[in-house]
Amino acid sequence: MLLAAGLLCCLLSTCGEAEDPVLIVEPISVAEDAQVEELTGEAAINKNTAKSSKPATEETSSEEENLTLESVLTSGSAANILQDAGETLETRVLTPSGYERVEVEEGSFEEFLRQYPLKPAGSKVLLYDGSEKGNQSAHAAVFALPIENYDLQQCADSVMRMYAEYFWATEQYDRIKFHFTNGFLVEYTKWREGNRVTINGNNVSWIKSKSRDTSYECFVRYLRTIFCYAGTLSMEKESEPTLLSLLKAGDVFLYGGSPGHVVMVVDECVNEEGKKAFLLAQGYMPAQEFHLLKNDRHPSDPWYYEEEITFPFRTPEYTFDEGSMRSLNY
Asked: Where are the domains positioned within the chain?
């Protein structure tokens, strides 16, 4: 059985149609940029990311739900929750009336997400090639997360990159490691020492072909390779189910499939009764900038309130089934 079902993620194109697998029989280090460009052609690998096989469906909030949130959305001005001058989640998205952001540990991933720079208010979501995404109605803000000019950094990849950028920034290099879809573990610590992955049919192994390189550019090359061979299926194996009561920033709503989809919790707040609300963000396909999602139930307020999270759970561009809440083991 070829690696197409696992490692190569290439039985489907970005349109979800079957394609012949792309096999690499030499180390990626031989000509990394050229190989990445080849992999992103028309017959490229399947990224196992979301093509809306489970598209968002129209749902009407119940009268009871509206009443539950009425005091939150009308006691303050929901329109004032989004602050154009804010440059991070913490300053761009205020908490609803009666809610406060949960305390997070200094230097934690949760703080990293909360403080991550955003593009200016009103920015459009751009695709990997610099063109505008077709749907500009799903986002409330755009993260300034780097994206390469390849159709690689899609939904799961954006989440992996955010984690990897955090570990890079905090010098936790040994935590930068991801599995290919077939289970092969690719550690950045090996990569930076000059090792590269070589694939020959079903065989995957390391080969020493470069000198040691601790530059950010080399780190990005590592990520490109991860994005080629990892996706929602591998991410599902790197996570554990979680509960709504335990949901926190860094956790995800995940459907592992070919294609699948994932959105990440990027912030949370809580009221005096212990009820929580969450901010969600996603990448998508084709590869595009990581962006904060709107909540279609109240477009001027992007928070997803605990009582709204029932299944099937609808986000602007995808609907998740029960069991999709997961905590990542990164």
From this structure: 3-49+155-236, 63-103+114-144+238-328
- pLDDT for 233 equals 97
pLDDT of residue 48: 44
Residues 6+ apart with CB under 8 A from 142: 118, 119, 123, 124, 125, 289, 290, 291, 292
Question: At residue 51, what is the residue type?
Answer: K
Q: Tokens at residue 153, please?
A: 């950094």
- Rg of the chain over CA atoms, in angstroms? 20
Q: According to the model, what pLDDT value does residue 204 have?
A: 87
Beta strand residue intervals within the chain, DSSP E: 99-101, 139-142, 177-179, 185-187, 195-200, 203-208, 239-241, 252-255, 261-271, 276-282, 291-293, 304-305, 313-315, 318-320, 325-328
Q: What is the pLDDT of residue 232?
A: 98
User: Could you tell me the CA-to-CA distances from 200 to 15, 25, 210, 235 in Å, in that order?
Assistant: 27, 4, 19, 24
Q: Which residues of the chain have pLDDT under 70?
A: 1-79, 202
Report the Cα 295 to chain-centroid distance in Å: 17
Rounded-to-integer distance, Cα 124 and Cα 120, Å: 9
| Backbone CA torsion sign across 66, 71, 77, 81 | negative
